[in-house]
Amino acid sequence: MARRPLPRILSSGSAHIARSREMARSAADSATDVLHPLITITRGLRLLAGSGRRKWAATPKERRGPALFLVAACVLVVALLPYGPLLTLISVMAVAGWKGRDRTPARKGPNDAELQRLRSLYEALVPYFSVPEDPSPLFAHGGEWDKAFDEYEFDADGRLTRLRVSYPAYFTDGEDSSRVRIEHLLHTKSGRGREYLFDWDEEGNELVMSVLPPLPTDIAAQRFVTTPGETVLGFTDAAAVRRTVPVMEGDTTRDAPPVVWRTGARSTEPHLLVVGRPGSGTTSLLRSIALQALAHGDVVIVDGNGTGEYASLTGRTGVLAVECGLSGALSGLEWAANETERRLIAANRARQSGHAVPDDTKRPLWLLLDRPSAFSHPAAADGRPDPQELLQVPLRHGRAANVTVVVAEQFDTLDALSRTVRTHTRARVVLGAATRDELASVLGAPPHTTPTPETPTGRGYARLGTGPVLRLQVPATPDPYDDATSDAHRRAVLDLLPDRHTPPGATTEPTDTATRTAEPDPEPAPPARTKVKPRPRQSQAPVPAAVPAEG
């Protein structure tokens, strides 16, 4: 983008304007030094007068007369004493000077190491914040760095923790590429290994860089204080949200700022897409969502990984099915599509007849799909439809039918998601290490923070619709059947699981469930799976039959 040259009057008379500005600044500094005692005494007199008015207002009316008589007597005595008025005037001036002194502690300047760091940072910003046509550049080689850096803070190691930068008005702060260059430079020069937040003030031409504290990773799965229709995805910075919820950390309770995702008929983002890499915590997030959803609704889980990560949910009250094979996934999603249509028809008929909506259409239904793209290739090879095609009805009409869809996918197979899934999942979460371009492609906007050098499990970013991009730390919700899970986290997940429930006509074997869920599917027979028959409803909606696991 070509920059327009400055007007000729600025370029021709630049030396004269610079000299006039320097003379005005010197005159103002000299006047301030000369008048400083008078300014101090005037401030003190104003404070003394204010204190006298407050004391007079606090004096009861019956005591004001004697107080006035006492003051008049003192004035008369002072007036009759030799040199009394002069000594009184000197005393009042002394008290006013003491009262009006500047009590602000003197600002300690940076030491030699910090000063060198600020100077090097200032010199590094000169090529980005200066143009040859500027007659009085704010950034120039060998210039005054204290005019550009209004505020700065250092930690005990001498590294910057906060910096306020004033930049020229002609800097293209509206272009993302220009801002990325400045953020990358400040991140590199200020020290790596930390996460920085960049707050751009385009109107004031200021940039504030601050170091963010790490998000807590010791918050385990628990009952969060939420209302029906609210799901806690994780926790973020205190300044990013206006709400806190009490959480348990060991034996103590504290308030933590949550990222709350609202679902239901009045939600603007009724469906969620979670993207990450292996080991980033996407399955833990789906497990956390399932545990929260079971408190008020029913859950259908489709596990494309086939590793038995959801075996602990099998046979629990509210868990309609846990599918790990292609046949089970197709039958479960087909039933979910028919159930969505049934709910829509029942609710429409009730409204047309002037009756209340049936209760069986109000109970939330959650469809949790972990890596649904894993079924695309087997379905195409077997001549069956892709399970993602069965999500069109729940995605498009799920909000009106209280049906919520949550899809978790990996970055490597993100292109395998159908267009319908991408379009209707407007709530997004990215977990694990990701580049700025990957975050922008999934979330729709880049974050205002630098990526973390070390990404713990469940660490990432979240964006609900068109809202801001928030840092996110998912509560620890591991598989309780995993041997690597700690006893505290295992107990926390097991305490949240509902009781086991065996519907009439269903045959399940509770022993070795996790092992049989992870076994490979035989061919050409339908794949073995662990499944619980959906609970019967009042309507005659088609429900997939329960298939017992093969021994």
TrEMBL record:
Residues 440-464, 496-551 are annotated as: Disordered. The lineage of its organism: Bacteria, Bacillati, Actinomycetota, Actinomycetes, Kitasatosporales. Residues 256-440 form the FtsK domain. The keyword Oxidoreductase does not apply. This is FtsK domain-containing protein. One of its GO terms (molecular function) is ATP binding. Keywords: ATP-binding, Membrane, Nucleotide-binding, Transmembrane, Transmembrane helix. ATP binds at G276, R277, P278, G279, S280, G281, T282, T283. Residues 503-517, 537-551 have a biased composition (Low complexity). The chain crosses the membrane at residues 68-98. The keyword Transmembrane applies.
